Amino acid sequence: MSDRICVMAEGNIRQIGSPSDIYERPQNRFVADFMGRSNLLDASLRGSENGHTMVDVGELVLRSSQQGGPSSGDAVVMIRPERIVMQRAGGGNRTVNGTVESAVYLGSVMHYEVALSSGQTLQVTSQIEADYARQHFDKDEPVEILIPPEAVYILTEA
After folding, report:
1. What fold, for 83-146?
2. What average pLDDT score do residues 90-106 get?
3. Where do the domains of the chain lie?
4. Where are the alpha helices (DSSP H) in the chain?
5. Does the reported pTM lie above 0.85?
6. What is the rounded distance in angstroms from the CA atom of residue 67 to the CA atom of residue 58?
7. Which residue would you say has higher pLDDT here, 52 or 67?
8. Residue 111 pairs with which residues in a beta bridge?
């Protein structure tokens, strides 16, 4: 297992770091996409509120708990599919309504594409545990999406 990774594109170094840094804190869209599935969304940052950066993604308003990054201007935010919480419609605060567009069984995980009421489509990955029937969502099923502030990462480069 390596302790440092160098991600290159067209002979140029895009980022050097530990595996967790590269995956959790990519510096740009290329590295985020190269290191696995991710939701990359064009956003507008509109300052801080209660220690969180407020992030507008179209009609969707998110909060980021990222420290030391930009807090205003245009940006790209990354949300890894496994960081998103999906639940049955009808019970959550700070959730966004959506509809399952696709559901793919991948053994120990389910991969979903969810169309949000705000117009975006998100990839969501959830771990399958003992109770598959309770955790599974079907195509066209209405759901609620929760995106915790720690899941919203603001990329420092385009």
Report:
1. OB fold (Dihydrolipoamide Acetyltransferase, E2P) (2.40.50)
2. 84
3. 1-36, 83-146
4. 19-24, 29-34, 132-135
5. yes
6. 23
7. 52
8. 104, 125
